[in-house]
Amino acid sequence: MSAQIIPTRATSKARRGPGRIVEGLLSSLLFPFVLLGLWALSSVLSPNRFFPGPWKVVTAFGQTWLGTSFVVDVLPSLGRLTLGLILSIVFGIVLGALVGSFRPLRSLLEPVLEFFRAVPPPVLIPVLMLLLGISDQMKVAVIVSGAIWPVLLNTIEGVRAIDPVMRETAASYRLGTRDRIFRLVLPAAAPQIMTGVRQALSVGLILMVISEMFASSSGLGYRISYFQRNYLIAEMWSGILLLGLIGIALSLLFQVSERIILRWYHGTKEMERA
Amino acid sequence: MLPDPALFSAVFAFFSTHPETKGVAVTVNRKLTSALLGTLGVVVFLVVWQLVPTLGLIKATYLPPPTQVAGQLVADFGDATFWVALGNTLATWIIGLLLSLVLAVVLGTLIGLSPLLRRGTRTTIEFLRPIPSVALIPLAILLYGLQREAALVIVVWATFWQIFIQVLYGVADVDPVARDTARSFGLGWFARLRYVVLPTALPYLSTGLRLGGTVALILAITAELVIGNPGLGGLMVIARSVGNNLSLYALVVVAGAVGLIINLLLRALERRVLSWHHAVRAEVTQ
């Protein structure tokens, strides 16, 4: 078996020369630049009121977001998003581990949970506004009300699907409750939990924006729809760009933390494949 | 006609004594218990909801009890505007879903089949995909006004990526041996697509369709809430602005029920499409 692995490693290393890196960079960056060029070209050739050129958007980006607005609009939005996501993840995992561990509890709650998951989360914004008023709590509650479901349901599934042999082994070794939770339940369910967390991130970002578009006088979502209502087109595009960048930053952050948290899992998978 | 008790007990005895079929009786029993518990859960939830406003923990104007909401629902069901709004929402949903499906399948197949295109577009896809669909709401309003087209921009943007990524993976997942075999048997481009690529990609596609269907509904209603185009979301905006909280809660329940039905339908569809291939199914869910 090892005789098979060594030559493949050697070949893959030999192919990873400087030429390969240049080729990789070229192929991954060529298309974005072509698109950018087309965008710039079309904005010069046929100027459209609603589609300003890339240079205009970048200038607007600098003027709009890099200044007081960063402190007044962007940071509070990100703060609410972070708080909402942390609450969703913590409560999702705790409740999910609880519900997933006890079959009767799971059967009891399953239909109710199915219904709440099926409710499109933005629908709850008017209801939460009614109950909590227009406040920061309401916005965080909106984020939690949508982002908790993917974490909760995936944790339940993950805990439920733990290998019975592992569970029985833990029982016959008389692992204490705490050991069982931190050494068996959470690690075994971690891959599934991470799937839920990834969905929660994108749902949370969407809800952050909508909760601010709906009822707010500050924040990213409010700003962007303010620009739209006042026909500040380049500024509006710069807001879309900023939201895109936040989305990308979140997904990068997720990828890095997933690689760290699930290192053992990817390791075992590779072992299985080899 | 009632089942014969003697027959019943014989069947029961058969199930409980046969070691191989004993499991069937146990699972049936277990299913029954969990169904009962599930019903109990719903009942408990409704009772708690009823008690909270009745005991005055939250004012009934802010949280109307389920009995009142049920009454409002019955009234809604007799109202034409409700059905028109529901129809509008579902129309936006299905048009958006179909548009995304066609776009995603065509683009996903084209890009997924060519390693060159796949590598070339990867960074662009990774950049565009995380852009939240709601960020495009202002743009959609500028382009199309407060119309269904504006809502469709949002729905298609979000749904497209869900299906596209699945198609991309599915098409690229073709077993190299199968592909080479098809080629050496002289199958043409179209035949290879039909007999090699399609069966591999189908499970991925139906997963994408299920995910996309849920997302499309969420964004159809979200767009109506924010843009105000006619539909369930539009009705909610009206209910909120006139302070009709009862109607608001009834609409939330309707939105949840629609979501639940769509979810169950798409899951059933997925199971049906995939019934022939359990091994692939296990791969997809991982």
Q: How would you summarize this macromolecular structure in one to three sentences?
A:
With 274 residues, chain A is mostly helical. Chain A has helices at residues 2-15, 18-45, 54-65, 68-101, 103-118, 124-132, 136-160, 164-172, 177-214, 220-229, 233-261, 263-273. Helix content of chain A is 86%, strand content 0%.
Report on the architecture of this protein.
The complex is a heterodimer of chains A (274) and B (286). Chain A is mostly helical and 274 residues long. Chain A is 86% helix and 0% strand. Chain A has helices at 2-15, 18-45, 54-65, 68-101, 103-118, 124-132, 136-160, 164-172, 177-214, 220-229, 233-261, 263-273. Chain A is flat, with a radius of gyration of 24 Å. Chain A starts with a helix and ends with a helix. Chain B has 286 residues and is mainly α. Chain B has twelve helices and no strands. In chain B, helix 3 (66-77) crosses helix 11 (245-274). The longest helix of chain B has 39 residues, at 189-227. The two termini of chain B are 46 Å apart. Residues 14-20 and 279-286 of chain B have low confidence and may be disordered. The interface between A and B is large, with 57 and 61 residues.
